[in-house]
Amino acid sequence: MIHPLTQMILTSPRNSPHESISCQPQMMAYNTRMRRSRSDRSRGRNHGDRKFSKRRSSKPEQPRDHREDGARPPPATGNYGRELRELLAGIGAPKPAPFKADPFQLEALSALEFEDVLVTAPTGSGKTWIAREEIRRLLGAGKRAWYTTPLKALTNSKYAEFSDEFGAEQVGILTGDRKENSGAPLIVGTTEIYRNQLFDGLRGGEDIRADLVVLDEAHYLADEERGHVWEEAIILSPPRIRMLLLSATIGNAREFAAWIGEVRGVNCGVVARPGDRPVPLRAAFLMPDKRLVPLLNVNGKLNSEIARMVDQQDRRSQRSYRRG
To answer: What are the pLDDT digits (tens) for 268-280?
Structure first.
């Protein structure tokens, strides 16, 4: 069956110079009938099909939340808003101010003139500043230094930091997968690489080229799997090499320093920073309803709301275990 519009075009006089004019009224009439027909069918569906009318709501569609669980975070108002403001208060970069070294930093630098030094200070206190200033003094005197860390990521970070500070030509890096400018006066590397160079020096009868070695995160000596690396590095380092050990988590610093002095034959002093950490920690917990609440209350105990939630989950788990 030929469509009416197709039939109308096919039967129009092809040789007429007014073909488009003669067909235009018929096409307009046909289009008008089609629009009326579609409009009638649409009104029939809207009025006759209740399910269809319910689906087509006149209210504007609300924006969808694209989270996997569809949950939206509650508004930060009321008590929750106050708790959240207190939790996040003061977070951000501090205002620029002239640098002034802490007494423990100056004490450590003075002690490095005549002995090994173990520095114990909370994270963020400025332990790296001590190492950086001692390295600056050595490089200015034409001497060499090693800076070791337990992690490749931390090693890469320190390499970038010291390259900016002293110049890229003065700094090299040695890790399991990076070897750049290995003849530089300052080498940044993992503790394993430093230990391996000590072993290589012993086999070849050569002394390692360094006047200072910094062991960052020195508490790794207590690590069950990797602690022997720090132990061997301390024991094998020649006594002529000054040793600076940095850590935030050594509880028995005096005992540790006494052992270092015993195995190396060089006195090891301890420099500690008193007081709390300068950058306080704030622990928070993300609730199932997307609220961020303090992990501990003002008394230092677990937040009662979190404790109730954990208790409810334990009870559900016990009931499920009994039924199973």
So the answer is: 999 998 877 777 7
